[in-house]
Amino acid sequence: MSQHVPQPPVTPDLSTLPVLRVAVLGAGTVGTEVLRLIAQQGDELAHRIGARLEVAGVAVRDRTKDRGEHVPAALLTDDPSALVREADLVIEVMGGIEPARALLLEAMEHGASVVTANKALLAQDGASLYEAADVHGVDLSFEAAVAGAIPLVRPVRESLAGDRIQRVMGIVNGTTNYILDAMTRTGADFSDALASAQEFGYAEADPTADVEGHDAAAKASILASLAFHSRVRLADVHCEGITSVSAQDIAAAGRMGRTIKLLSIVERVEEENGERISARVYPALIPDSHPLASVSEAYNAVFIEAEAAGSLMFYGQGAGGAPTASAILGDVVSAARSRVHGGVGPRESRYAELESIPLEELRSAFYISLTVQDRPGVLAEIAGTLSGYGISISTIHQELLHSRDEGSQALAHIGISTHRALESAMTASLDMFSSTATVLSIDSVLRIEGD
Questions:
Q1: Which residues bind NADP(+) (predicted)?
Q2: Residues forming the annotated binding site?
Q3: CATH of region 359-448
Q4: CATH T-level assignment (fold) for domain 153-317
Q5: What would you report as the CA-atom Rg of the chain, rounded to the nearest whole angstrom?
Q6: DSSP per residue over 395-415, as a string?
Q7: Which residues sit in the known binding site for L-homoserine?
Q8: Domains of the chain: which residue ranges?
Q9: What gap in Å lies between CA 422 and CA 445, rounded to an integer?
């Protein structure tokens, strides 16, 4: 009997493969990394795709600026419109709303598939991009828009398409996680931790979009839309940042066995008449035992709860040139394969069209910090106010504050954690505290999550 001898795999001649022309919009940190990876891994990418990627051009505002060895001057153009009209694939890493939106719509109108990392555009007007992709039969891919190198969009959009996602809670902004982690480790206040983040390149010179929660809110909008098959607008996402988180809040969280993280939370809210969606971003106290509590420095992590799959956690680098470029190239390979073999990737799924629930109708657990007069009956008065609005106290921590001058009124600091209560009830209680002479200041109000 003759013995079968395995034959080595046949490696195709790359020169015989079709060519896909790639337009890159933007040559900043991410764009440069994308170009570097295409140049360095060109042959491997060609084998994986079944076609060669050829960079047709790189659109920039200033063609005279030296972009380094990975961005040849011969590829630079200041006419992005002409560039996208001749491309098979368009990679958008320029950011902003316009002209990015107009260029992507033009690219799809001329038959190009699009890969973008533009979370702000997707959150504000993803509808027009989805519609254009459907009308023109091209791919719209955006893995890098939510969590950098972490595969998250594809698992939610495809791997869990046969399941029912109930809740997504995660840390999706590296800048704020670095700041809060530094405050926790060192006891620094917000301004010092922000300065450190800027010094080491983890925060922009203008960090507003990060520290005020806008970046995380845009990502929450995208995640909610994918997870719940509905269009969730950026305006539907309740957004709070971390600028008011103090070193005292961090210390209080530590005493409670908790850590403060900026969380993006999207979830189904079950009601008698059906379901609605909650999408929100705010700093919250989570137990030290929760998987998200150990996410340090500028890393991201997302916790997904699904009916059949149970709890899933995704962890990794959520920002930076190389990690983001990795996610972009993953989308490029998928879109390029579709072009070579025919067909397109997943389309927008919004059959559910669930409405968003206002924050005031949700129930949350809270931690509130108050500076009060130190006299008999104060605790009873505060507890009575909360009880009057249906809020039950879980724990109280009281600390006497030193008086500034002899004979001045004694003050105390009170930290209260509550059981779950209506957001509207807490708002009413805080309004009542603001109008009483007993409470001198409301120092902080934070939610408690993860229990």
A1: 25-32
A2: 25-32, 119, 204
A3: 3.30.70.260
A4: Dihydrodipicolinate Reductase; domain 2 (3.30.360)
A5: 26
A6: EEEEEEEPPSSTTSPPEEEEE
A7: 204
A8: 14-148+325-341, 153-317, 359-448
A9: 14
Binding positions for NADP(+) are 25-32
Superfamily of domain 14-148+325-341: NAD(P)-binding Rossmann-like Domain (3.40.50.720)
Q: 133-161, pLDDT tens digit by residue?
A: 999 999 999 999 999 899 999 999 999 99
| DSSP classification of residue 442 | E
Instruction: Quote the tokens at residue 327.
Output: 């996610």
Helix residue spans in 148-246 (DSSP H)? 153-154, 174-186, 190-199, 208-211, 214-228
CA distance linking residue 232 with residue 277, whole number of Å:
8
Beta bridge partners of 279: 266
Contacts of 279 (CB under 8 A, 6+ apart): 220, 221, 224, 232, 236, 237, 238, 265, 266, 356
Contacts for 86 with CB less than 8 Å, ≥ 6 apart: 21, 23, 56, 110
Choose the catalytic residue: 52, 101, 154, 219: 219
Nearest to 23 by CA among 57, 73, 49: 57
Q: Residues 268-283: what's their mean pLDDT?
A: 95
3-state percent breakdown (helix, strand, coil) of the chain, nearest 5 = 40, 25, 35
Residues in CB range of 55: below 8 A, 6 or more apart: 22, 23, 24, 35, 38, 75
On the 0-12 / 13-18 / 19+ scale of CB atoms within 10 A, 447 is buried
* pLDDT tens column, 222-259: 999 999 999 999 999 999 999 999 999 999 999 999 99
Residue type, 381: E
**219 part of the active site:** yes
- Structure tokens belonging to residue 439: 């409470």
